[in-house]
## 1
Amino acid sequence: MTDQPAKHDWRMGGITFPDVEDYIYTMLPPRDEVLAEMEADASKNKVPIVGPAVARVLFQLATISGAKKIFEMGSAIGYSTIWWARAVGDGGRVVYTDGDPKNADKARRYFERAAVSQRIQVRVGDAFEFLSEEKEQYDIVFNDVDKTDYPRAFRLALPRLKSGGLFIADNVLWSGKVSKPNPDATTKAILEFNKLIYDSKELFTTMLPIRDGVAVCVKR
Ligand SMILES: C[S@@+](CC[C@H](N)C(=O)[O-])C[C@H]1O[C@@H](n2cnc3c(N)ncnc32)[C@H](O)[C@@H]1O
């Protein structure tokens, strides 16, 4: 019998069976001191981070694809940003974006401690504005902004992705609400987004039912 993993708020649930979900978290190797502190911080302060199970998928996707330039829409305290920064390695670059300056201050301190500041550009304000100003194309655009803005993120991100690049989005199963009748406004936006990414001729999409659902879309 293995130890039960901590039930942090960011784990969410409602997609896989609770005992299967527990098992997945039990299997995860411990994180370093900074990431472990961030996970506790996020849980205590109700910051909705992707958590380690999803973060490992993000890390794998970045390393498999050899990504060097990543744009993150919605970074909060920088938990997923650190995983991206570690995946891109020396010479890689990750753009952190968040509308809340307090999040950004905290993130900067974590980046210093994780020794990845050099790889991260911190931008405080509207991720949509920052991405629309970009001239270059990215290897990965990660969408984790307010869920009602997901369809807008799809429209903006596609031209900013290189051919063969990845558009990745968290929370696409939204605690399973995507499969229930009478969706609320947030769920409707996610349903619209999911249809857009599957219908797009420019993308090849899958949804991974891990934690709250992660969409992985390859741009043709
Ligand atoms: C789910 S959290 C991000 C968590 C982070 N990706 C992680 O896993 O560690 C979403 C964050 O996006 C920010 N946000 C929402 N809409 C935004 C926008 N349009 N521009 C910039 N930040 C935004 C919020 O302030 C919030 O901190």
## 2
Amino acid sequence: MKTYYHARAREYDDWWLARGLYGEKRPAGWDDERRALERWIADLPPVRTLDVACGTGFMTQHLRGEVVGLDQSDAMIEVARARLPETTFVQGDALDLPFPDASFDRVFASYFYCHLEEQDRVRFVAEARRVAPELVVVGSRLRPGEQAERWDERVLRDGSRWQVYKRVFVPEELAQELGGRVLHESRYFVMVASP
Ligand SMILES: C[S@@+](CC[C@H](N)C(=O)[O-])C[C@H]1O[C@@H](n2cnc3c(N)ncnc32)[C@H](O)[C@@H]1O
């Protein structure tokens, strides 16, 4: 997962924007639902937030309050810094966060939890709880006929092929798993806050 996303940094936003390799597969209503998700993120109360696995900062830009972004990939962070020059970005491991206990009010994690297998999920949630009382997770909503847990084959522009672990969620089940509540759900997206 780490190497794949590092290699994908320069073309990562194509997925959110449904362009490039993702242009032909643009699902109906995708842009509207992405914008609705962005509005929900912007409506979160402005607090000290750590955006874990922030990637290119595509969602970081909508968070209000005092925001720090963290990612393991310097290539991702470079894109995020160019997008948000005023925001602090730190290179580090989400499973061993380089911050003292209770440094933040909220950990926000978009499209990260869904890529963690069970052992890493447990480690990540424990780390998130250590640094902040609230955890907000964004991911894909399970769609009819879709497999909830799987290994996807992904292709990059250079033709390289990668195997990526991915889960998609039934909103209420994700809320239950994290001991929280559903903040937003649409056809493609789900956002859960815990507690
Ligand atoms: C699917 S992207 C999500 C990026 C961003 N949050 C978004 O929603 O657009 C997953 C991100 O997780 C980062 N990542 C993977 N493993 C990580 C780890 N152990 N610690 C920190 N970041 C990690 C990758 O570099 C990548 O930027």
